[in-house]
Amino acid sequence: MYSVKPLFGIAFVAVCLFFGCSKKEYQSFEELDNANIRAYIQKNNLKVSQYKDTDLFYEVLEEGTGNPIDYKKTYPIVYTVKSLDGVYNSGDTLSSSNRYADYFGYFPFGSGAAGSPTVEREGDFKEVIREILQKTNGKIRIIVPSRLMYGRNGVPERGIPPNASLDYVVTVHDNFTDYEDGVIQKMIANAGLNIEDFTKTEDNIYYRIDEQGTGDPITADSTVTVNYTVKNPDGSERDSDTNSEFNLASGTIPVWGEILSLINKGGKIRFFVPSPKAYGIAGVTDQYGNYTRPQFLSLDFDVEVKDE
């Protein structure tokens, strides 16, 4: 009769080796993250500090001067983010992809991706923002290991590579009104326009009448034919068309009726609009939760009304 003891011993060693290798693989992933982060910090001579006993590193770039940051409140948050190897770099705070207006406790993924009603989660980098920056109207850099963000696979469709630890610079603004007014002023300057040529309304809309027009007056419920161009905060074109017909009472956003009524048919007007007068602070999503109109999106309209 054959003894099973040797076979059992071999099997036991094999199991130990298997689990030992698995554990080692996980540790090497963590070690790779940490080594990459420390090399990046040293190479760029960053004056960062380690957050508690985590592998997150931070540096306050501008002290917060506003209100205490609350996980259950909504702020206009803008940020830049890049992978440590520079393969992924999203660095324009005027880009529609570099903004966040959901509950702060779900930053940066949003409540739609949270899968849980809770906003408290220890050890992630929004905790660093709340505990270190503490107040709004401040800016903080945070370096986040890949395993706490997009992991081994990354997000290829967004250009985020595998195993990408990320360097965020996050600004938490106190309120949308002041932030968007500043953005619009920057949009006007970046477009090569003189802000003194614009009139500012009580709703923080900036407009400039280029041609008054000699046709019929326009009212809030007029039907008009227009040539128009709409641009994003970064100056990229969002939409444009010629000879488009709209009823101002129902066929477009309400601000058109308000602003186009300042001119006559045959006129031209340029106006910059904060999000509450356009598509809203929260933006617009499709049935799958994808943004068709990004959050707190200020817009630049250039409109010519045909005299027909």
Automatic annotation (TrEMBL):
Domain PPIase FKBP-type: 72-176, 221-308
EC annotation from Swiss-Prot or TrEMBL: 5.2.1.8
Family: Belongs to the FKBP-type PPIase family.
Source organism: Parapedobacter indicus
Single GO term (MF): peptidyl-prolyl cis-trans isomerase activity
InterPro entries referenced in this protein's UniProt entry, alphabetically: PPIase_dom_sf, PPIase_FKBP_dom
Transmembrane annotation, as ranges: none
Name assigned to this protein: Peptidyl-prolyl cis-trans isomerase
Keyword Lipoprotein: no
Reaction(s) catalysed (UniProt annotation): [protein]-peptidylproline (omega=180) = [protein]-peptidylproline (omega=0)
Top-level taxon of origin: Bacteria
Keyword vocabulary terms for this entry: Isomerase, Rotamase
Enzymatic class: isomerase
